[in-house]
Every structure is written in structure tokens, then in C-alpha cells.
Specification:
Number of domains: 3
Largest sheet: none
Distance between the termini: 27 Å
Structural class: mainly alpha
Number of helices: 10
Order of helices and strands: HHHHHHHHHH
Number of strands: 0
Helix content: over 70%
Strand content: under 5%
Shape: flat
């Protein structure tokens, strides 16, 4: 997410509002950096406030039109519900977005880190300096979010004129991944002590590869449990339920088949959606 004319307009409108509060600019700006949101906090939260106001106005106008066309208690209740819930969910969604994006980026970095460490180790053995290593890494799209972190380090070294240690320290403050922060902190310690970087990178590769293997084993076990649960709850159980209800309906004649429509049209699709969300959120999809 980048700064646009709309977000800059929102900042001009609400900048005085945020200046009245004693917000920690460094903390909030660092969180936006971790989420890869290219805005300062005044601009981002001004956009959030504007979107909440727009959501309230749009929901109010649309529901009032419905009430004027169909004036009854249901449409009146709809006006109250939508005008209160739409702005609330818009605000909550945007307020949680930086944290959510930062966690997603951290997972992506942790997933690529073993292979990045192996790449860095190979270049270090060849005698290439850390600044050149991160400069090369910044041009490789294969490593996902790690490439963006390397670009930030390279930008500080080449454009801002900072030394490698300062650039790495600044990268630690804005990186969402704890593993990557520890990795960079280790590089700083080795550089300051004058030790051999290749030895440090070699240990990191072994540790990261071992951790990655253990994580993949856990994910596979979780997927096995999820597959068994999926077959039992979404495939086998509805089939047995349909058979039982059909037989009981034919024999007794007093059971309605409306429940079968509810299962087929609502319960089973919701179960599929639930399993999909669980797979995407908790199973570590990069297996």
C-alpha cells in the first residue's frame, strides 16, 4: 500500500486532529514499515478516518432511500444496524491491517530465510562483503519479502551513505520477522568482533534448515489431522445424515425434507469455507 493523492488529501484534512494527541510517531511508523505500508502514520490514520466517514455516509444514504421506498420496522432497523456496523468494521479492518500484513510478511520471510542464508553463505565464502551481498539479494525476486528487506538495507548504504552496521541496525527496527532480526543482529556482532562471517553463516544455514524441516513435519501432521476431520465432518457425516433422514421420511412420513435443503445450501458450503480459512491461516501454506 502506497501513498496516493487521496491519502495525501486525507492527511491535509485531518493532520491537525492527530497533532492534538501525543502519539508515538516512531512506534507507529515502524509498524507501518513492518507492514510495507509506504505512509507516515498521520497519512494512514487520516485515510482510515476518512474511509469511516465515507462508509457512514454511504450506508446512511442507501438505507434511508430503502426506508423511504419501503417504510416499515424492518427497514428502520436496517438503517440503524448498517449505519453503526459498516463504519465500525471499516475502522477495525484498517486498524488491524498493519498488524495482519506484518505477520504475513514475517511468515514469508521466515519461509525464505533458510535459502537466503544459504545464498548469503555461498557469497560470503567467495569473499564478497555484506553490502554487496545484500545489494545482490535486493535484485532477486525469488526470495519474496526478504528481497524488500534487502532493498531497504541497500538503499541506506548506497543512497543515504550509511555504513553496513548502521543500515543493519535500522533494518532490525523495521523488520517484522524475529528470526531475520536475530540473523541481522548476529551479522552485526560478527562484524564488530572481527570474526569470520562465513563460519557464522554456515551455522545459521544448519540451524535454519533444521527449523524449517521441523516446521514442515508439524505442518504435515496438522494437514493429516485436518484431512481426517474434513472427510469425517464434510463428506461422511452429511451422506449418513441424508440417508438416515431419507429412510425416516419414507417410513414415518412425518419428517420434513426442508432440513436437507438447509444442509445442502448453507451448512456444507460454510463447512468448506471454514476448512479453507483454517488451511490458509493456520497450516502454513508454503509447504
Amino acid at each position: 500500500m502506497k501513498s496516493t493523492k487521496y491519502t495525501r488529501l486525507c492527511r491535509r484534512l485531518f493532520s491537525n486532529f492527530f497533532e492534538r494527541f501525543n502519539f508515538s510517531q516512531i512506534t507507529k511508523n515502524n509498524m507501518l514499515e513492518k507492514a510495507d505500508i509506504s505512509m507516515v502514520y498521520q497519512e494512514y490514520y487520516s485515510m482510515v478516518l476518512m474511509n469511516v466517514i465515507i462508509g457512514f455516509i454511504v450506508s446512511l444514504v442507501s438505507t434511508l432511500l430503502i426506508y423511504l421506498l419501503l417504510p416499515n420496522n424492518i427497514t428502520a432497523l436496517l438503517v440503524f444496524i448498517l449505519t453503526s456496523t459498516v463504519p465500525f468494521f471499516i475502522g477495525i479492518g484498517y486498524l488491524q491491517l498493519p498488524t495482519s500484513k506484518a505477520k504475513t510478511r514475517a511468515k514469508n520471510i521466515d519461509h525464505h530465510l533458510p535459502y537466503v542464508a544459504n545464498f548469503i553463505n555461498t557469497m560470503s565464502v567467495a569473499g564478497i562483503s555484506p553490502s554487496e551481498i545484500f545489494g545482490t539479494l535486493a535484485g532477486i525476486q525469488l526470495y519474496g519479502e526478504v528481497q524488500k528487506e534487502a532493498k531497504k538495507i541497500t538503499t541506506e548504504i548506497e543512497l543515504m551513505g550509511n555504513d553496513s552496521i548502521t543500515a543493519l541496525r535500522n533494518a532490525i527496527t523495521i523488520s517484522p520477522s524475529k528470526k531475520f532480526r536475530d540473523f541481522l543482529q548476529g551479522i552485526i556482532a560478527v562484524l564488530q568482533s572481527g570474526s569470520d562471517l562465513a563460519t557464522y553463516f554456515d551455522r545459521c544455514v544448519d540451524q535454519f534448515m533444521f527449523d524449517d524441516l521441523e516446521d514442515r513435519k508439524k505442518n504435515l501432521e496438522s494437514l493429516a489431522i485436518m484431512a481426517e476431520s474434513f472427510v469425517t465432518t464434510v463428506i461422511a457425516f452429511p451422506l449418513f445424515l441424508v440417508i438416515i433422514l431419507s429412510v425416516m421420511g419414507l417410513t414415518s412420513g412425518g419428517i420434513s425434507f426442508d432440513f436437507l435443503y438447509i444442509i445442502a445450501l448453507f451448512i456444507i458450503p460454510l463447512a468448506y469455507v471454514g476448512f479453507y480459512v483454517m488451511m490458509k491461516s493456520g497450516m502454513g501454506e508454503e509447504i
